[in-house]
Write a structure and sequence with these properties.
CATH class: Alpha Beta
CATH superfamily: BB2672
Oligomer: single chain
Number of domains: 1
Radius of gyration: 16 Å
CATH topology: 60s Ribosomal Protein L30, Chain: A
Structural class: alpha+beta
Number of strands: 6
Order of helices and strands: EHEHHEEEE
Amino acid sequence: MCANPGAGRGKLDDLGELEQLGADSAARLVTEALAALSAVGITPEQVRGYGKGAIVGVDGDREHTAAVLHPRFGAPVHAAIGGGADIIPGTKMVAGPGASITMPIGNKDDRWVFDDMDAISISIPDAPKADEIVIALVLSAGGRPNARVKKP
């Protein structure tokens, strides 16, 4: 979680500061996620899926989460994992502390790989405060356990 530079400022036409926050946050989150995966022997090339999400506190605007997650968030993630031809699926919301957000997970190269379609829910008991944003990234190195759904 971090401070929302747009909190309490009403409708912002220039969302550049939030877009930069998205790029910076993605770079930090993917570095930390890859370090955690490396600790259990998973390399960046073994990442198969990903997802993103953001919760903006009540003094913010849903568009703040869109600015964080969409224009510049993907590039640092794709660079760190060595690719990713498909979009990073994401979700966003306005809520208070302890809110849970469910982030979709999709295959990094083909959104129609059924085995990799999943989701994960996160919450932080004391965040986001009214002037904060929770920004999250999820990486997967395999599909759902025992996946058996096939394309017709």
